[in-house]
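Researcher: For the record, we're logging two predictions in this thread. I'll number them. Prediction 1 follows.
Model: Prediction 1, sequence and structure:
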Amino acid sequence: MNSFVLIVFASVSFILGYLFYGRYIARKLGIDPKRETPAHTMTDNVDYVPAKMPVLLGHHFASIAGAAPIIGPITAAVFGWVPVFLWIVLGSIFLGAVHDMTSLVASVRHKGQSVGKVIEAYMGERGKQLFLIFAWATLVLVIAAFTIVVSKTFVATPAVSTASILFIFLAIVFGFSVYRMKAGLAVSTVIGVILLLVCVWFGVKFPLAPSADTAQAQYIWSWILLAYIFVASVTPVWILLQPRDYLNSFLLYLVLIGAFVGLLFKHPDVQMPAFAAFVDPKLGSLFPILFVTVACGAISGFHSLVASGTTAKQLNSERDAKPVGYGAMLIEGTLAVIALLTAIILVKSDYVSHLAAKGPISVFSAGVGGFVAKLGVPLHVGITFAALAVSAFALTSLDTATRLGRFAFQEFFRTENPNAAQKVLTNRFVATFFTVLPGGILALSGSWTAIWPIFGAANQLLAALALLAGTVWLARKQKQNHFLRYPMYFMFAVTLSALVVLIYKKINLLMQYYSGQAMPQSFGVVSTYFLALIAVLLFIVAIVLVIEAYQHLKLSKEKA
């Protein structure tokens, strides 16, 4: 099989999916451009800020397209390229994009509040509280996993750290220019992208490393990142989050375009087998592990939190819900396909050795560098640029996750007549602190390989719960919901099975420890307990929410 065929097939499928199935979903959700959005009715210049569609698409895409759609497909390629490729394409069109767009529209129809608020409206206060606990715990895992991924990338490629710091200052200047000095978006974008590339060049020329010792450098970067995401979470969205995500999106657009064009010229043959063993010794069985490993490349619960957490508060018109909600997921699906191709053009022995030695981001960067080298770009420049783009997006996911965790924490304790304690806990600084704290503890005490499987399962289960919320919302409105209901059934089957497997593994690991066998040096017994506890908590909360939803759906049918 030639890689050219796969990328063209995926691209055509995504375009047709956007034009036809995206239009179908928009009709079912009753998109109305004349209906005012919360960005206008509740403007506060902190979280609720109307944004032009290209800007919001950039923010949303940059927030959802972190390292996960790269790490997931490359790691899952061990099962063979056919199941991974099919899951990315079909999952993105019929599950992921539908999930994202529905979450966005549902939030817009409920004052730009979270999916938890939608659950409260149709399943009661207890349903909302349970969902918020689930969402917050998942976001803590996101903070832990991505803090480790970004700090490791900074240490491995010091040029990335320099460029990332310069990106932050560039974004602040861009935000003030567009929102306070009323500079034109088109001109500001051109200048911003040029300066963005200058930042990349400056990073390559002047890499920043706080310590020659790798472990110490990663520890220092972790603390710096935790301090940064605290500040980013409490800062008005127009100053940093929105402009940085918008500008960073152009980095990934360039990587996608360069890789796509390079593939058309180079079009290497696929070397990996179409199907491998159903059970991998390290990952486990294809079902359910493949579906939670690919994660954001096909569907992601984190997207529902972004859509209903920050994006819905900035949606200028409901007309923009399709390109932002549905379209961004398909662009991410394209990224996931390219990531998969960087792995499967390698022979299996090279794939296994490269993945074990340097990790999936290195596999992606080397592959993309090889693609763009066909266009005349020096190989080392292509590899460095790809690594910079990935790290930039991991960082955007990190600070967006922190803000969303703050939202979930505040919403959990918010009441109409708050007491003194509730007023303190709903303060954005306090809520951010209690969100960053557990994520930081996990990040500083372990490795992403221990956290990632739990994050993947929790993330996909969160997607099932978001689909559940959308199903109940439409059912209570007496509207068709089959396009949400059937994907929901599948995602619950996959993710609950995966959680059972992961809980078993954690318990088995602890039993080995108490029987005298040593714990892995990269992770401690306390952290293993913590992750096992989170996994059990997520499983229980999900089951309770399913029971609650079933009762309310049954009630809706009786009333109908």
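Researcher: Logged. Prediction 2.
Model: Prediction 2, sequence and structure:
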Amino acid sequence: MHQALLAILLLLTAAVATVAVMRRFHLPSMLGYLAIGMALGPHGFALLAESAAVESFAEFGVVFLMFSIGLEFSLKRLQAMRSLVFGFGPAQMALTALGTGLVTWLGYGQGWRSGVAVGLAVAMSSTAIVARMLSDRFDLHSRSGRQTMGVLLFQDLAVAPCLILLPALATTGEDLWRSLTIAAAQTVAVLALLIWVGQRLMGRIYDAAAAVRSNEVLVLTTLWIVVGLSFLTARSGLSLALGAFVGGMLISETVYRHHVEADIRPFRDILLGLFFVTVGMNLDVGYVLGNAHKLLLAVLLLVGGKALVVLLITRIARTPLTAGLRTAAQLAQAGEFGLVLIELAHRSQLVADDVYQITLSAMLLSMFLAPFLINRAARLSGDLGRGDWAHKATVIHDIAVHSMSLGEHVLLCGYGRTGQRIAEFLAIEKIPFLALDVDPQRIAEAQARGINVVFGNADRREVMQAAGLARARAVVITYPDTHSAERALRIVRQTRPEIPVVIRTADDKDTARLKAAGATEVIPEVLEGSLLIAAETLVQAGIPMSQAIQHVRAARAERYASLRDFYQPDEGRPRKPS
């Protein structure tokens, strides 16, 4: 018992320290968990031992990951991108898996089943890395961005069949086709039954849970659904993760989708982190370093092969070379699901230890290299990753059309809840404004109500110029991400050093940096919220309203330089309480 507690304490200590470092340098937490497994596992300091309990918890990490993917599944999105999803997607996966399988089979002397397993694992790309980079680089809606997201969406859908196929491939030769046929029949029957029943019951189950008005009941209901559906699919001879995917897909069609996603994220992240720890424990660093030449060749084949396959497909589809290069670089790395599949193949004894070690190491290295490759391909395409020239010209033209008749207007960078409230106040005072946002659904809803909102990212100089920055009277930046807000601020200051810029931030920790970068005023939401709560507390405690307001005004006078004259006490105004 004490030994188990010591192992858990070591794991938690390493996790806290390593994940904090990863966050500090803006790296994926997954890399930290992998490093923990490598350092503390049997091939490192041997402080953690593999056990059935650890593997069970790690498997539930995959279950919750598949559940979250089911939550993001959207039939409308799938229909809108069907040509890309079911055109580029299958072509990329099939050609990559086929090429990798042949190399594994013929080049490394492995069986064809091992080739299929390795091929399917390598065919996956990293949704987490690529989607974030595309969003940050204003590239999600360019031609290359749409092609990449279509392929990634198909890969997400293909994980479930792969989880069924790999265990079936592990059976003996005589039983292979029988196993595949039985697995396919079971899958169709079980999924059809679960979806048919689930569509009729899922909404009612959550309506009943919500009626209790307890967040605890909603969380427990979600856990019950995840574990229950996983149990049903496992009892039917299928994987746990498949049931979780179906559960997420069913919940995504209800109004509780976003609430459930927020509730399940801590369980998913922690358990998935444990899965990556177990992956790191299996990586034999000594063997990999002793076979560095094989690893280098494997990385070149993986990255180069995937890039060539994607580039070939884009050229056949008559995609411009610049967009094709970017799409190829964006899909040239391995992905999280690839790690799940190669681990499953290894446990099913489809892949030998030496092939597993080299393949796993090559996949991890390709994920490290992904950001550099994407940036390099963007430079080679002559576009710096900001989208196709035609796409960018369309976006800029649209912004210019919306701002053409404006002068002395306010530029709202971000049209979330804060931006919407500011827009309401500006409309009441009849002050013209133009709001920039990158959420297509939010923009469509606002434009339908006649609000001047347009697609655009404020950290692009050409976007701000098209939005009429030269004619604007003020800029408001409401981005929740401080780094994006700072980039937008620097663009504004390079063009208009004198224009007032107000920035919203979550708390006080970034205020000094934003002020140093040129912000006229920085408004921390946590400060304003605390002032209102403090004032209300004083009133409820029996303090007169005027005296409570005195405290609020004094605190604001100390905090906001631009409002100090208004809040400072003088004759006829409340004085700062002593």
